[in-house]
């Protein structure tokens, strides 16, 4: 693929295949007010739970969040967790090509979090070589999927999927097809990845594999060159935490040392997933390796400033790379899948999330009063608006007056609003189930029990309120006045 000027819109054309250890990450959030009388341990009152793809699934989440097409191959068990993982991937715009292995369960990692403090992590897994039937299906699925990819990521979490048999089939075939293969490695024997295009070890992993310290730039470069020579790869990108990254290629070109870009570091979990995802997407979109490394470095700086295994959004990357956004509003208009990731980050930081919904066809003082009231009761405000087809079903063929995109961008221009989501259904119930806001407010002359979705929000402990409309202010009245 030829090199192109840096254009994040080109990411949408990139097709990335991810192969590796997938798992279901569960997060149980709550509060601790007392110590158990039975043992010296905290008693946690559960407030909400969240499940999302982890491991190689988190790599795919980062690819999808950047706008590229992600396909994911891995193993799951014949169990409810595998079904839940499949659904979570689909909701995040990832195409799952999961192989069921009846000899092992789906890997689950459950984290119990009070405030911003993780109290406990519980792992359910069985590692090692997959069953013979599952391994054969896995290899066949990978080879067939290569024909619809611009780049391949191997995400090795040392759980058994990335074994010698799979690597022996994948790496030669990908090289024959001219597909770059990026490996996020594990263990001390990186020679097993021979034939890959690039490895992305962290500083500790690179030092363990080479016996070479990576503390200084010179040491990191030496470790990278050892990896290239010993493992038969084209390049190595060593992530070095607060010291940034070092990119070493097999050419005679000098190593590229990129300083860390994060101003604040809240959580480094999942940062390696973000790096390899951004790197692969940039390469598939036509960027040279050095520019792809700069993009990955910027993405890493964004994600470590978030709590939990977060993802990077195009508008965040655009700002970090100082790329123009004509109106600066696109970042506040999100799909349901992107909104879910954003809200998960807000919740992880302990922020109270408010939600209101409607058509918002012609903005008027009544709308502003509602938005101001809701925003005064929360840290973040989501406004969900009906898609055009939904409005026509609800209000007739002459509505809406303005298209869904125009309505969304007008709302996004308001400082009161943090996020705008367009929903195609006639009610916001599916969106409420995904986002689980802390507060649902609806404007109207009816009781709380009549608010659509009130039962859902109350079921997980959220709050529901009704805001009285401003007298004489409505879109219908405005349209009637204009017609007269």
Describe the structure.
By secondary structure, the protein is α/β, with parallel strands linked by helices. It has 16 helices and 19 strands. The strands form three sheets. Strands 5-4-1-8-9-10-11-12-13 form a nine-stranded mixed beta sheet, with helices on both faces. Strand 2 (22-35) and strand 3 form a beta hairpin. Helix 3 packs parallel to helix 4 (164-177) and helix 5 packs across helix 6 (217-231). The longest helix has 15 residues, at 217-231. The protein is globular and about 75 Å long.
**Which residues sit in consecutive blocks of at least 5 with pLDDT less than 50?**
none
| Net shape | globular
Return the average pLDDT rounded to an integer.
88
> What percentage of amino acids are in beta strands?
15-25%
Structural class: alpha/beta
Task: For the largest sheet, list the strands in their spatial order.
Answer: 5-4-1-8-9-10-11-12-13
């Amino acid at each position: 693929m030829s090199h192109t000027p840096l254009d994040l819109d080109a990411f949408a054309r990139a097709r990335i295949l991810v192969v590796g250890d997938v798992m279901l990450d569960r997060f149980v959030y709550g509060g601790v007010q007392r110590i158990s009388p039975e043992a010296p341990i905290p008693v946690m009152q559960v407030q909400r739970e969240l499940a999302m793809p982890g491991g190689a699934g988190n790599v795919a989440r980062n690819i999808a969040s950047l706008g590229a097409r992600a396909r994911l191959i891995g193993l799951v068990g014949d169990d409810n967790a595998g079904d839940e993982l499949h659904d979570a991937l689909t909701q995040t715009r990832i195409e799952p090509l999961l192989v069921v292995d009846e000899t092992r369960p789906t890997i689950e990692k459950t984290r119990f979090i009070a405030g911003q403090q993780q109290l406990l992590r519980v792992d359910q897994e069985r590692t090692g070589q997959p069953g013979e039937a599952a391994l054969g299906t896995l290899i066949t699925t990978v080879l067939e999927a290569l024909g619809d990819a611009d780049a391949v990521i191997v995400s090795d979490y040392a759980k058994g999927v990335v074994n010698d048999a799979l690597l022996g089939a994948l790496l030669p075939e990908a090289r024959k097809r001219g597909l770059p293969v990026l490996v996020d490695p594990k263990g001390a024997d990186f020679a097993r990845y021979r034939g890959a295009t690039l490895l992305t070890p962290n500083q500790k992993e690179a030092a363990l594999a080479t016996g070479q310290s990576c503390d200084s730039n010179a040491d990191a470069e030496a470790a990278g060159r050892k990896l290239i020579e010993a493992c038969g790869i084209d390049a190595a990108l060593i992530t070095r935490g607060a010291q940034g990254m070092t990119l070493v290629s097999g050419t005679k070109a000098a190593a590229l040392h990129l300083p860390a870009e994060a101003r604040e570091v809240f959580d480094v979990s999942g940062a390696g997933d973000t790096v390899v995802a951004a790197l692969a997407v940039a390469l598939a979109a036509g960027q040279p390796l050095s520019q792809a490394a700069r993009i990955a470095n910027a993405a890493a700086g964004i994600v470590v400033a978030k709590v939990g295994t977060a993802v990077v959004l195009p508008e965040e990357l655009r700002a970090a790379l100082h790329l123009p956004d004509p109106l600066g509003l696109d970042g506040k208009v999100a799909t349901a899948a992107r909104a879910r990731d954003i809200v998960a980050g807000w919740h992880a930081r302990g922020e109270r999330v408010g939600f209101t919904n409607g058509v918002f066809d012609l903005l008027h003082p009544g709308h502003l009063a509602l938005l101001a009231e809701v925003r005064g009761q929360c840290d973040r405000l989501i406004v969900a608006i009906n898609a055009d087809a939904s409005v026509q079903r609800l209000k007739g063929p002459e509505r809406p007056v303005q298209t869904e995109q125009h309505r969304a961008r007008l709302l996004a221009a308001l400082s009161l609003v943090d996020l705008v989501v367009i929903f195609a259904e006639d009610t916001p119930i599916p969106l409420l189930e995904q986002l689980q806001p802390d507060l649902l407010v609806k404007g109207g002359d009816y009781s709380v029990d009549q608010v659509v979705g009130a039962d859902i929000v109350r079921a997980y402990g959220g709050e529901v309120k009704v805001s009285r409309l401003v007298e004489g202010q409505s879109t219908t009245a405005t349209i009637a006045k204009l017609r007269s």
